[in-house]
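Internal ticket - ligand job 487, 6-O-phosphono-beta-D-glucopyranose:
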Amino acid sequence: PAPPCTLVIFGAAGDLTKRLLMPALYNLAGAGLLDPGFQILGVDHNESSDEALRRDLTQTMESFTKDRSGEFHPDHIDDETWGFVCARIRFQKGDFEDPESYAALKERLTGNVVFYLAVSARFFGAVVEGLGKAGLLKESGDAFRRVVIEKPFGSDLASAKALNARILKQGDERQFYRIDHFLGKETVQSILAVRFANTMLEPVWRRAFVDHVEITAAETIGVEARGRFYEATGALRDMVPNHLFQILAMIGMEPPKSLDAEDIRDAKAALIAAVRPADPGEAARGQYAAGTVRGKAAAGYREEADVAKDSRVETYAALKLTIENERWSGVPFYLRTGKRLGTRLTEVAIRFKPTTLPLFHADGVGPAPGNVMRLMIDPEQGIRTGFTVKRPGPRMLLGQAETHFAYGEAFKEAPSVGYETLLYDCMTGDATLFQRADAIEGGWAAVEPLLEAWKSGEPESYPAGSEGPPSAAHLVERDGRAWLRLD
Ligand code: BG6
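stdout (structure tokens):
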């Protein structure tokens, strides 16, 4: 198990606590990874009590057995396992901006503490300052004090820098765990193994063999109940400098010196630092209009709750990035993400160059396109690799085939909600899967020209249920390429 500690959750009544943290703690308890000395202290500005919070959280846990829409849907909740977690939950009312809340916390807390900021981003700075000023981030003896910060971390380069500076006044970089939940995904973590533990891949994972790379995070959902958040955020800020850049860094980084957190984070930061600032002329910006998604009518973005009728916020972003280093110079990385598309699909496609041998160029034999290797991140989890082979028959005719591996079939381990590893790592002090200040700032720096350019003009409209705006297709077609189809 992880060392005994108290997990203080700011925003204990919120959605993140219910939907992700509690299921993750339940799974950790089930796996025997929580120490008997583990405690949870929920802090929220609403009135509640130990009993009421336990009752609420028990109800939500039970609702997951009926709700099949989220990541966590067990057949039943094991009473003993949930009892272990539930019995450790306490509540404290607290205003995140009131020093007295922190003084009260100080009275209750000793030893190892992980402070989890499951609160709106506007409180990140204030909570860390509250903790620091109350002396709650001082580590004495072996006891650790760590702070987990959710995204979005800043809303552009300047605000991310300011937030980093503000929190780093209160504690040391190694005490801060900036979460990017994509790094909690097994399929994202596995990229490191796929790339560096397979002799047949590492030699070809470079510009001599790779024509381009596509990174896609397509969603069928709209903004749901998050109109207010999304109006201030948009697809670019919501997904690109954080989630997609974390994938980009895993795909592009050099082999780290070791599996130590700092070596891995150095390798990722070096890759992100080599990304050239995005060019607004090589990007696409879209917003969904009414349409049909999987047979169901869907409203346009401007009709959603808490969204302005003339909103210019993008719900789709595509961009071309270049990386100036020995491995990737000249290889474009195309990134795209959007809501209300026809398919839910998060994947990386490595598009290899076609063979240069003239052997198969004769009429009717080919074509022999470049191989495509697709690292399927969500919801399908696995790898699809395309091959050119000979079609069975008397003549040499080429055909396309695909091999497919699925994590769920190859391994029997229970699927996780993604936050188990992140929480466990934080309790054990492994920062590998968390973002360091330099990587966050590097992500913002790379998209800064788009943030600037997109302050004016209109996003291009695309019907809900489609593949996105036409300009996203043009972005790659101009280079003589085409996105993999979203189906
Ligand atoms: C979140 C974004 O960080 O990631 C959401 O705020 C998005 O808008 C979500 O839907 C996607 O995550 P996942 O794990 O569902 O692919």
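Auto-summary: Residues 234-252 form the longest helix (19 residues). The longest strand covers residues 210-218.
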